[in-house]
Amino acid sequence: MPLPEGQGITSRGVFCRVFINVSRETHTKMIAVIDYGMENLRSIRNALMMVKIAHALTIVLLSCVFAQYVVSLQCVWLKKRSV
Hints:
The protein contains 1 helix and no strands. The chain is mostly helical.
């Protein structure tokens, strides 16, 4: 099938054009996937930070309870000695 005058499109030109279109679409999809991945990483990092904060607070709370227990034991021991 002869091409219309003025359109010197070769099979290579069509292939290149298709390849560029596919590449552009793939590139856009890849950027979308990378953005999605970064968003997930950010939320995972936030979740990990929350876990670390909760862990630290638990340790502080347990330390306070333990310190209170030790102080109360010392108070009982001191009362027994003073009697």
